[in-house]
Amino acid sequence: MPNTSIMKIFLADTEATLRLGITLGESLTPGSVILLEGDLGAGKTTLVQGIGKGLGIAEPIVSPTFTLINEYTEGRFPLYHLDLYRLEPQEVTTLNLESYWEGVEVIPGIVAVEWAERLPYKPDSYLSVSLTYGHEGTRQVELTPFNCAISKVIAAI
For residues 47 and 83, is the Cβ–Cβ distance under 8 A? Predict the structure, then answer.
């Protein structure tokens, strides 16, 4: 059965991508998982930077390509930013990433995973975010909730 709750949003520029992230950061609740997919430069990190701003995180949010996981804990609640670009699925399995979305060893927060297609397993509930290039620097984002609801605030964008 097709998922009828897919939202497609046109993003005119980097600022629009950042604003969408801010809205997500302001409206998501602890335990939310965002699985981000898209080509290099499509806006995944920009979206996560917006989420951080929406959570009230002041420190710069940078892609954890080489560190794999950056934890930002000074916002309303934590942001866990994961980047799986450099990993193979079998390497991802050994990281026990589910501890982030299950809140087992960490304070529940928002988990944002770049290059989520490299995850060999998915959480029970998540928001899939797929960013694609448009013309002249524009982007399109598809938001697909899996066992979670998209906030009315996000739906109004």
Answer: no
